[in-house]
Design a protein that fits this description.
single chain; 53 residues; mainly alpha; 75% helix; elongated
């Protein structure tokens, strides 16, 4: 799936690669998506708890 990144996003990825923590852009994006998934899961849990009270 090809995607288009904003220049700021590309710069962020390059900055992360420069730290040496990641070896390629795929690793940076994969971690970002994992964090997004966790945030959505947590947000969904909070919303479910709010609705049940």
């Amino acid at each position: 799936m090809p995607i288009t990144l904003q220049p700021e996003q590309e710069q962020f990825i390059q900055t992360q690669l420069a730290t040496g923590r990641y070896t390629n852009a795929t690793e940076v994006i994969a971690e970002a998506l994992q964090l997004l998934e966790k945030r959505i899961t947590i947000s969904g849990s909070k919303n479910s708890a709010t609705k049940s009270t």
